Amino acid sequence: MAFGDILEQVGSTGRFQIVHVTLLSIPVLLMASHNLLQNFVAVVPPHYCSVHANFSQSQLSPEEKLLVTVPLDQAGEPHRCQRYVAPQWHLLDRNGSFSSEEEQSQGEQSLPVDLQECRDGWSYNMTEMTSSIISDWDLVCDLRSLKQMGQTIYMGGVLVGAIIFGGLSDRYGRRILLLISNMLMAVAGTCAAFSPSFPLFCLFRFGCGMALSGLGLNTFSLIVEWIPTRIRTVTGTITGYCYTLGQLLLAGIAYFIRDWRWLTLAVSLPFYVFFLISWWFHESSRWLALNNKHEEAVKTLKSVARFNGRHEEGEKLDIKMLQESMKKEMSSSKGSYSVLDLFRTPKMRKMTICLSAVWLSTSFAYYGLAMDLQKFGVDIYLIQVIFGAVDIPAKVVITTCMSFIGRRPSQCGALIIAGVTILINVVVPYDKQTLRTCLAVLGKGCLAASFNCCYLYSGELYPTIIRQNGMGWVSMMARIGAMVAPMVLLTGDHIRWLPGFIYGGAPILSGVAAVFLPETLGTNLPDTIQDVEERELQKSSKMPPKEAVILQDTQANLLKQAA
């Protein structure tokens, strides 16, 4: 597109782009921490009913008190949600020592005893965390579903943020919404850390979710709209790796900060610094030009040219040159656009429906796996590191595939392989924890690769004038999937294999839907809806992909040097 020529004139891969992308990518590290924070602040510790309030045998050891007040469940462990109505002293032998588990079970079978709920609260074994929202507010037994509800509310905030910030940034610009998002994340995260009750905690986490959407959408747009086509794949992958490193960073921070309040504060305070840094960012000149802010667009481009050491080239730019070079795009962008424009034309409609399926299922299955680490029976800090580390090879593979075989086959393959892996895990016996964990890690890696692909793919498919609306829409679909995912886990209480079947089936169906998306490898970034509708004409020219041309030229030069 014409704007690409202007960007090359002021420097498309200079110092400005390096500093710009680096500073925008740093907050992505802690975006991962907020997304997966629930794994650590909502750890469910081993727990059982506290002894009766009028229990007077203080000389008994904790083990003996547990024996006479709490029955055993079917697995031979202290029951989590029931206790004896009255202490069962017969379970102690004459010397005061406690009976074996077999003797206790036989005693329970021979003597009918009355049980009651935990009327005096619970006792918790805090080995993994010194405190969690579960232990502080007793979110166990009848209230155990509130844990999943807390994550659903957070994802609801991400959903609302995608709707609000997507439209506002298209109207008011990327930079101002990025500033607001950073401040909202800092304030809401700080308030969540000091919440005196669970409802207030959920309210502030809802605010964090909204901020995360604003950060993600505007960070991506500011990155992709300041870089040329030829490095979009590499830059998108680097940004994705920041999220991967953020998962590893969260495991390290949580390992050393075992109190949920301090942990929440630790991943929220840096956003005050990110807010101050955000004042330096330049507004997208592409957005400024398409919104008839020509003077600001030229001023910003000249500033970038000076930063890149191209002062003379920058001074040649003026409003007339900008208007002439983007005449077609600016004339087509007149008027206001809304989410309805994503469905107004045939190709936009088909593209939006297919992308909606891809984003919804990817997020749904991803958070279904990533937000229930305790089920694997492995140390939660170790499994968090493994789940984060698998993204590294997964994204290397998907980046290679996107650059050489295309975006569409890469997207389809990642989703279908993830779904098949999760479905295989459904039939693996539950006692084979190592095999189940390996399959889950493989599936999670494929879903991470799918996320990496669909972020770049969607940004290339949607035109500039409604890119934020489009990204906001697909992000909304992803958050719907993320909201539903925790609730699906609750179905496992009734049908054990059902969550895995649902998590595996959704990616396979969306992988088939992705077949109907157009390929964008080597194509220019569209600016208008008309560009999207004319994309088929570009495909018919059979021009080789730009990445492939670059590779061929490099190989040819090497052969010449060898000769």
UniProtKB/TrEMBL annotation:
<feature type="transmembrane region" description="Helical">
    <location>
        <begin position="470"/>
        <end position="491"/>
    </location>
</feature>
<feature type="transmembrane region" description="Helical">
    <location>
        <begin position="238"/>
        <end position="257"/>
    </location>
</feature>
<dbReference type="GO" id="GO:0008514">
    <property type="term" value="F:organic anion transmembrane transporter activity"/>
</dbReference>
<dbReference type="Pfam" id="PF00083">
    <property type="entry name" value="Sugar_tr"/>
</dbReference>
<dbReference type="InterPro" id="IPR005828">
    <property type="entry name" value="MFS_sugar_transport-like"/>
</dbReference>
<keyword id="KW-1133">Transmembrane helix</keyword>
<feature type="domain" description="Major facilitator superfamily (MFS) profile">
    <location>
        <begin position="27"/>
        <end position="522"/>
    </location>
</feature>
<dbReference type="InterPro" id="IPR036259">
    <property type="entry name" value="MFS_trans_sf"/>
</dbReference>
<feature type="transmembrane region" description="Helical">
    <location>
        <begin position="497"/>
        <end position="517"/>
    </location>
</feature>
<protein>
    <recommendedName>
        <fullName>Solute carrier family 22 member 6</fullName>
    </recommendedName>
</protein>
<feature type="transmembrane region" description="Helical">
    <location>
        <begin position="176"/>
        <end position="198"/>
    </location>
</feature>
<keyword id="KW-0472">Membrane</keyword>
<feature type="transmembrane region" description="Helical">
    <location>
        <begin position="263"/>
        <end position="281"/>
    </location>
</feature>
<feature type="transmembrane region" description="Helical">
    <location>
        <begin position="381"/>
        <end position="405"/>
    </location>
</feature>
<feature type="transmembrane region" description="Helical">
    <location>
        <begin position="412"/>
        <end position="428"/>
    </location>
</feature>
<feature type="transmembrane region" description="Helical">
    <location>
        <begin position="152"/>
        <end position="169"/>
    </location>
</feature>
<dbReference type="GO" id="GO:0009925">
    <property type="term" value="C:basal plasma membrane"/>
</dbReference>
<dbReference type="InterPro" id="IPR020846">
    <property type="entry name" value="MFS_dom"/>
</dbReference>
<feature type="transmembrane region" description="Helical">
    <location>
        <begin position="204"/>
        <end position="226"/>
    </location>
</feature>
<feature type="transmembrane region" description="Helical">
    <location>
        <begin position="351"/>
        <end position="369"/>
    </location>
</feature>
<feature type="transmembrane region" description="Helical">
    <location>
        <begin position="434"/>
        <end position="458"/>
    </location>
</feature>
<keyword id="KW-0812">Transmembrane</keyword>
